[in-house]
Design goal:
By secondary structure, this protein is of the alpha+beta class. Among the domains are: 105-110 and 260-439, Elongation Factor Tu (Ef-tu), domain 3, CATH 2.40.30.170; 149-224, Helix Hairpins (Orthogonal Bundle). The chain has helices spanning 34-62, 64-67, 150-185, 191-223, 274-282, 427-442, and strands at residues 88-95, 97-113, 116-119, 125-130, 137-138, 143-147, 226-228, 233-235, 245-246, 255-258, 263-270, 288-292, 299-313, 318-325, 337-354, 359-361, 364-370, 376-380, 382-387, 390-395, 402-406, 416-420. Strands 1, 16, 17, 18, 21 and 22 form a six-stranded mixed β-sheet that branches. The protein has a six-stranded antiparallel β-barrel with strand order 2-11-14-13-12-15. Helix 3 runs antiparallel to helix 4.
Length: 445
């Protein structure tokens, strides 16, 4: 009997059990490049992770000395015997000097003329001549203007003629008096006639004195027709032109003359500095005053203190002082604003340093002194008075030492420095620079 082989049916998944649109694995279509894209994305991500690890490792290496101070030498990645690089700080320095320190008081002042004269006419008349140029220097007694004198000449001739007439009358009266006195001696006339003649002579003498006064007054009025300079100085602009009628004592005047040599300067100082000035004046010391321009750059003149006001201005708390200048070069003009510097004291053989080198801390005042090995030493000092950009040192420094003036904020004790060449500045320039800063803080014009 021949048996038939058993044929198994293939595993067929029911079409109803498969999701709609899903194909069998064998029949599922393959998307081109999908695998490559996934691989590239994985590669890029791995590269970013490796880059991050490299950056972190480099940072740990760079900051190993600060972050891992507890690691022994060699575990931080460096050589066991390597030394850290020394940081060199560039600084500017100044030398401690021993010299005289001049102490000044600064104030804002106004130049004023010692004498100012407004020329005015004392008589009425026509201005017929002007003999000066505007702005020229004139001397005392110099003829400047002339007023028509003819009317005053006529008045002078009139009173002179009257005087001559009265003098002749007096001469006749005296001769008559001599005759009557002779007749009286001969008892030819009465004494009363002699007395009448004496009175007549005295009356004529009084008239002559009056005539002489009239003549003097007429000559004086005639002299007023010539206007001369009463002082030496510079004459200003002409206020009345030639040909105009002028009146006696017109309010406007004819011109103004100001005395420029010598000239005065009135300036103010704070009331707190009054004792320093009075101390010097009580010792009969002559105090010097320098006049500078508004920028404190140019010295205009040097003079002497001449007067101190008798009261303090209550609104500003300042005292007015007056100085006199020869003004030979004529750089000072009336009503000019200048800066005044009053020398009140001189500190002899003082140790001085630039004020910029002086620093203040919780433990006191100090400077950074440069040692021979070009490291700095923090040196505590005692300071004295300051003047402008310079400060006196009482103790803590020696002449010739170097102190740091620029770059101080980057220094600590024993810092290594390199010295930069500083432009040399004179003591007067440093003082003027400090004075200019002080004037700017006080609102100088």
């Amino acid at each position: 009997m021949i048996s038939k082989p058993i044929v198994r049916a293939p595993d067929v998944v029911s079409e109803r059990s498969r999701p709609t649109g899903e194909l069998p694995d064998a029949k599922r279509p393959e998307v081109p490049g999908a695998a490559d894209e996934v691989a590239a994305s994985n590669l890029r991500a791995s590269r970013w992770w490796w880059l991050l690890l490299v950056v972190l490792a480099a940072g740990a290496w760079y900051f190993r000395a600060d972050w891992l101070p507890w690691l022994p030498i060699g575990t931080s990645g460096g050589a066991p015997d390597a030394k850290p690089a020394v940081r060199v700080i560039p600084v500017k320095t100044a030398t401690v000097e021993q010299r005289d320190l001049h102490q000044y008081l600064n104030g804002l002042g106004t130049v004023t003329a010692l004498k100012t004269v407004t020329l005015k006419s004392r008589v009425d008349g026509e201005l017929i001549q002007v003999r000066f140029a505007e702005g020229q220097m004139v001397g005392e007694g110099e003829l400047l203007m002339e007023i028509d004198p003819r009317m005053y000449e006529a008045q002078l001739h009139q009173v002179e003629g009257q005087l001559t007439r009265d003098e002749a009358t007096l001469k006749l009266a005296k001769l008559t008096l001599a005759r009557v006195e002779d007749l009286l001696k001969q008892n030819s006339i009465a004494p009363q006639q002699v007395d009448d003649q004496v009175a007549q002579v005295q009356q004529i003498e009084g008239t002559i004195e009056t005539d002489q006064a009239l003549v003097a007054n007429a000559r004086l009025q005639l002299s007023y027709c010539r206007i001369t300079a009463p002082i030496n100085g510079r004459i200003g602009l002409r206020l009345v032109d030639q040909g105009n009628m002028v009146r006696a004592n017109d309010l406007g005047g004819l011109a103004v003359i100001t005395q420029l040599q010598p000239i005065a300067l009135v300036f103010t100082i704070p009331q707190d500095d009054i004792p320093r000035v009075l101390k010097q004046t009580r010792e009969n010391r002559e105090l010097t005053v320098d006049a500078y321009d508004r920028d404190f750059k140019t010295k205009l003149a040097t003079g002497k203190l001449s007067a101190i006001d008798n009261q303090v201005d209550s609104t500003t708390g300042t005292l007015r002082l007056k100085a006199v200048f020869d003004n030979e070069d004529g750089l000072l003009f009336p009503n000019q604003f200048v800066n005044a510097r009053l020398l009140v004291d001189i500190r002899r053989n003082a140790l001085v340093v630039p004020t910029a080198a002086v620093q203040r801390g919780p433990n006191g005042v100090f400077v950074y002194a440069v040692k021979p090995d070009e490291t700095v030493d923090l040196r505590y000092i005692a300071i004295g008075p300051s003047e402008g950009a310079m400060t006196a040192i009482e103790s803590g420094l020696e002449p010739g030492e170097l102190v740091v003036t620029d770059g101080v904020d980057k220094l600590v004790k024993d810092s290594k420095v390199s010295l930069l060449e500083a432009e040399p500045v004179s003591a007067d320039a440093e003082s003027n620079r400090g004075a200019a800063k002080e004037a700017a803080n006080q609102g100088a014009p």
